[in-house]
Write a structure and sequence with these properties.
Elements lengths: L18 H16 L11 H6 L34 H14 L4 H28 L2 E2 L5 E2 L3 H13 L4 H5 L4 H19 L8 H15 L8 H14 L3 H4 L3 H25 L20 H20 L25 H19 L3 H15 L21 H22 L4 H22 L3 H11 L4 H13 L3 H14 L4 H13 L3 H14 L4 H13 L3 H14 L4 H13 L3 H14 L4 H13 L3 H14 L4 H13 L3 H14 L4 H14 L2 H14 L6 H19 L1
Antiparallel strand pairs: 1-2
Helix pairs in contact: 1-4, 1-5, 1-16, 4-5, 4-7, 5-15, 7-8, 7-9, 8-11, 9-11, 9-14, 12-13, 13-14, 14-15, 17-18, 18-19, 19-20, 20-21, 20-22, 21-22, 22-23, 22-24, 23-24, 24-25, 24-26, 25-26, 26-27, 26-28, 27-28, 28-29, 29-30, 30-31, 31-32
Length: 719
């Protein structure tokens, strides 16, 4: 056989680079696209996957990552997302160890590096898919499509739809792709040009597939890609050759099928033999009662995913909650898009199967296989998924699109000579610019959420997240506007109601806050946080019985709820039920030993009720856990002063002032201590410091005037 490059490869308007140069250029392009996210923040659901995930903490047993889901919840829990990705969580843990904590830069840099490696690896994958695995007389590997594989890899490296996978810390998509493409390489190598195969190599590919599934479940689909490659390699798209290779083909397919079945069974067992539960707002089409409506809307979702690959301009961090309204009638003009999608797919399938050009058949078939098979887990065909559209699930599928696009560029370059260089470079530059722009938007929650407003103005979650970000930054007035819009768009959005009710509570708009929070708990009766906030509002409205009931409802739905016990204690204190208040605060400190407010309130209540000895014990117990808490030091110092333990009290006052020297009340109470102790000069100094910090401090001016008269009297007596 005479080895020659593909006839259309040399028409591609790129310079022919050596293997090393093409890899360096591809890695550089991938780096340029996403490097500006390297010092970005943790954004969106990174707070749950990274910040609040205890499995990252070195103090947590390493074995926990094999028992918990991606978010750190136990897989057996009803609230678990069932996303079992222990190897991805392990990489987070390694990042944590290397950086000495939760520093985003290390997480982001590893993400960018992973994408660069995968993009470089894609050159070999595309070269094998387009031209096959061939060797020269010395056994060295040859590429029959150096330009085409290079161009496809450049498209992959720079595609803007990858931004979510690369610029967000999540990493499950890029980590989960490194192994699948290694699997493909192994499987492709296991079937050589002489159609012989190695069982060992196939078992190796199944093992790597298992590793990929431990990064993300989508890794299982690579076995389907390998099976398709095997069929196409064996029969070379020629059905008549199939019979001659049937025994070897069936053996390989059987091994892949058995391996895949075992992996799926193991995954099902780990998941607890039950799928995760999703709500209608996550995926409304899957809850449509009419089967026809479900099918139509699923296909519309497919067309939107295809559009994101073709024109990745409208990108959004979340596509749920009304972002994509359901198609409910045959007169909806959007039905045109799934029809167009299937016409295009059928055209590609026809060319892939019936073209006289064997290389065209091969390239388009592999492009379609890579495009469709990795997308199947997200298609709702086998099980309900928890999203409408998710750009991250296109990371693998985009490889098939890039392969088809590279072929299209080569085909057009063969027939239209003019402007082919400028057109190709323009396409690449637009991709790079859009990726860099989108990567910049993923640097912070403020820019990410704001960018979504123009893409999904009907998405209640977008307005909710914009409002939450504004509230976190102290702009509560602006946050109210977005929370109200979120509730208007989705009247059952309980989290938006809860957050809006909290802001209204702080603004003393208690009646409306009560209405919102009552509606939230009526919609979702087990919403513990809303019950607690409703209790706080009812307490402020003097509806003490209802407030108490709301607090106990919150505790009933969340057994370990220290903040709720704290607020319950405040209610009991207002009702002069001192024993109940102390018990509630003690429960809060048992559930959360560093609950400073609960400890401090116990000391103050015991002080106010004359139980000074017990107050002293509680204060010292609290400081063993919170040795630098200046508020507890202040309260304990007051208790010791009343017991005339002046020296010990002075020490706690001074320690509190070392930590926070600008507290007027601390200077004022220390001055009172010195006043009683007879250290009048020190008392005068601290009275003056207190008045300088807060001229209107209650009682301080009167005490200071009393001290001045006493000093004047002493001076006259001495004189």
């Amino acid at each position: 056989m005479v080895l020659s490059e593909l006839y259309w490869d040399h028409h591609i308007p790129l310079p022919k680079l050596g293997p090393l140069q093409s890899r360096l250029v591809t890695a550089f392009v991938a780096l340029v696209c996403f490097i500006n996210s390297y010092d970005g923040d943790f954004v969106f659901d990174d707070s749950e996957a990274i910040i609040n995930n205890k499995d990252l903490n070195p103090d947590t047993p390493l074995s926990n990552i094999w028992k918990n889901d991606f978010w750190g919840s136990n897989l057996s829990s009803n609230s678990s997302h069932k996303s079992y990705r222990p190897l991805t969580v392990l990489t987070f843990r390694i990042n944590y160890l290397l950086a000495g904590g939760l520093h985003p830069i290390g997480f982001h840099m590893l993400n960018v590096a992973l994408h660069c490696v995968i993009s470089v690896l894609m050159i070999d994958v595309f070269a094998i898919l387009i031209g096959g695995l061939v060797h020269d007389g010395r056994g060295a590997k040859l590429s029959l499509s150096p330009k085409a594989s290079f161009l496809a890899a450049l498209f992959f490296a720079s595609h803007p739809v990858h931004t979510e996978s690369v610029s967000r810390v999540g990493r499950r998509d890029s980590a989960g792709c490194l192994c699948p493409f290694s699997v493909e390489a192994l499987e492709f190598l296991s079937v050589g040009g002489d159609k012989k195969f190695s069982v060992l190599w196939i078992f190796g590919s199944i093992l790597l597939c298992a590793v990929a599934m431990l990064c993300k479940e989508q890794g299982i689909t690579v076995l389907g890609v390998n099976a398709a490659y095997d069929i196409l390699m064996v029969c070379n798209l020629n059905i008549y050759e199939l019979a001659h290779q049937l025994s070897g083909l069936l053996m390989r397919l059987a091994l892949l099928f058995l391996g895949g079945s075992f992996l799926l069974y193991a995954r099902w067992r780990i998941m607890g033999t039950g799928p995760p539960s999703f709500t209608e707002v996550d995926n409304p089409a899957s809850f449509a009662e009419n089967v026809i409506l479900r099918i139509v809307n699923y296909n519309y979702y497919y067309s939107l995913n295809a559009w994101l690959l073709l024109c990745p301009w409208w990108l959004c961090f979340d596509w749920s909650m009304g972002c994509v309204p359901l198609i409910k009638s045959a007169t909806d003009w959007r039905i045109f898009w799934p029809l167009l999608l299937w016409c295009c797919l059928m055209g590609l399938v026809y060319q892939a199967l019936c073209s006289q050009d064997s290389n065209k058949r091969r390239t388009l078939t592999f492009g379609l296989v890579l495009l469709v098979i990795p997308f199947l887990p997200a298609s709702n065909l086998f099980f309900r998924v928890g999203f409408v559209i998710a750009e991250r699930v296109l990371y693998l599928s985009s490889a098939g699109y890039c392969l088809i696009l590279a072929y299209a560029v080569g085909f057009c370059s063969c027939h239209w000579k003019k402007h082919k260089v400028s057109a190709t470079l323009t396409l690449l530059c637009v991709n790079v610019a859009r990726s860099a722009q989108r990567s910049q938007q993923w640097r912070s929650e403020q820019s990410l959420f704001a960018s979504a407003l123009s893409v999904c103005p009907l998405n209640a979650k977008v307005h909710y997240n914009v409002g939450k970000n504004l509230a976190d930054r102290g702009n509560q007035s602006a946050a109210v506007k977005y929370y109200r819009e979120a509730v208007r768009l989705h009247p059952k959005y309980v989290h938006a109601m809860n957050n809006l009710g909290n802001i209204l509570k702080e603004r003393n708009e208690l009646k409306e806050a009560e209405v919102l929070l009552s509606a939230a708990v009526n919609i979702q009766p087990d919403f513990a946080a809303a019950w607690m906030n409703l209790g706080i509002v009812q307490n402020s409205l003097k509806k003490f019985d209802k407030a108490e009931q709301s607090y106990w409802n919150a505790i009933r739905f969340r057994k370990k709820y220290p903040d709720c016990y704290y607020n319950l204690g405040r209610l009991y204190a207002d009702l002069n039920r001192s024993i109940d208040a102390l018990n509630a605060w003690r429960n809060a400190t048992m559930l959360k030993p560093d609950h400073s407010l609960a400890w401090n309130n116990m000391v103050i209540l015991l002080d106010n009720t004359g139980n000074l000895a017990q107050a002293e014990l509680i204060g010292k117990e609290a400081l063993k856990i919170l040795p630098k808490d200046h508020t507890i030091m202040f309260s304990l110092a007051n208790v010791l002063g009343k017991q005339e333990k002046y020296k010990e009290s002075e020490g706690f006052f001074l320690n509190a002032l070392k930590i926070n020297p600008n507290v007027a009340s601390c200077h004022g109470n220390l001055a009172v201590l010195y006043h009683r102790w007879g250290k009048l000069d020190l008392a005068k100094r601290h009275y003056e410091l207190s008045l300088r910090l807060d001229p209107s401090a209650p009682g301080t001016k009167e005490n200071y005037n009393m001290l001045k008269r006493k000093l004047e009297l002493r001076q006259r007596t001495v004189g």
